[in-house]
Amino acid sequence: MVEKPEVLKKNAEPLRVDPSFKYEVMKEPDGETLKICFQCGSCTSSCPTARFSDSYRPRTILRLAQLGIREKILPSPTLWLCTACFTCTDRCPQDVEVAGVLRVLRNLAVKEGHIPGIFPELASNIYETGYVYKIPEMRLRKRAERGLPPLPKASLDKVDRLIELAGGTKLMKPKEAQ
Ligand code: SF4
Ligand code: SF4
Q1: Residue 118, number of CB atoms within 10 A of its CB
Q2: Is 37 in the pocket of ligand 1 (CB under 6 A)?
Q3: Within a domain: residue 10?
Q4: N or C: which end of the chain has fewer CB within 10 A?
Q5: Is 100 near ligand 2, meaning CB less than 6 Å away?
Q6: Is there a single domain that holds both residue 63 and residue 100?
Q7: Minimum CA distance residue for ligand 2 atom 4
Q8: How far is the CA of 75 from the centre of ligand 1 (A)?
Q9: What integer is the mean pLDDT of 61-70?
């Protein structure tokens, strides 16, 4: 027998609905397309992440956003499984900017302090090196041994300035220090 989703179980906690949530999403660039989603499911059926995940469904996330059930979206680590490949956006028959709406939702999640652990680490790497991943010394030595040119160095003062302009400096500090 297929188990009922948590929200449909008899003693499930009632969900809080925030009627203003969809307007919060729709005032951001790409977010305005949320209102034209008619729930056909093409985004989910073409999403490469959904194919390998039991919980990640872009169609469901958009429906929850339309209904204003923010508590099921913003704190959820599932939101971060999107790889921004844009397949959903290409396939949507309604021209919903699905990947854009998901980006808006992640930005709102960050503003509320919901950032999965790996992201501050990746952000620190960009801060320190200009790259998302720190390239190990051993790999740099091997490049040199094989006569490959050194990797380009990032202009860290410009990276610093970009992060500051994007509001990243504030978000990267621990919440209590803001
Ligand atoms: S493909 Fe477009 S219209 Fe269909 S569910 Fe996804 S976002 Fe909504
Ligand atoms: S952009 Fe995200 S939601 Fe859309 S198809 Fe790619 S992984 Fe799936």
Answers
A1: 9
A2: yes
A3: no
A4: N
A5: no
A6: yes
A7: 88
A8: 22
A9: 97
Q: What is the CATH number of the domain that holds 67?
A: 1.10.1060.10
| Residue indicated by tokens 């992201």 | 119
Which ligand does the CA of 66 lie closest to? 1
Residue 80's closest CA among 61, 59, 94? 61
Is 5 domain-assigned?
Answer: no
90 lines ligand 2 (CB under 6 A): no
Same domain, 28 and 104: yes
Q: How far is the CA of 175 from the centre of ligand 2 (A)?
A: 29
Is the separation of the CB atoms in 82 and 25 below 8 Å?
A: no
Task: For residues 79 and 157, state if they share a domain.
Answer: no
The pTM (predicted TM-score) of the whole model is 0.80
Q: Which domain holds residue 97?
A: 15-111
Residue 133 sits in the same domain as residue 104 = no
Distance 6 CA to ligand 1 centre (A): 23
- The C-alpha atoms of residue 94 and residue 28 are separated, in whole angstroms, by 18
Quick one: angle between helices 156-165 and 118-129, nearest 10?
Answer: 140
Question: Model confidence over 24-55: pLDDT tens digits?
Answer: 999 999 999 999 999 999 999 999 999 999 99
The answer to whether position 9 is within a domain reads no
Q: Quick one: which atom of ligand 1 is closest to the CA of 101?
A: 7
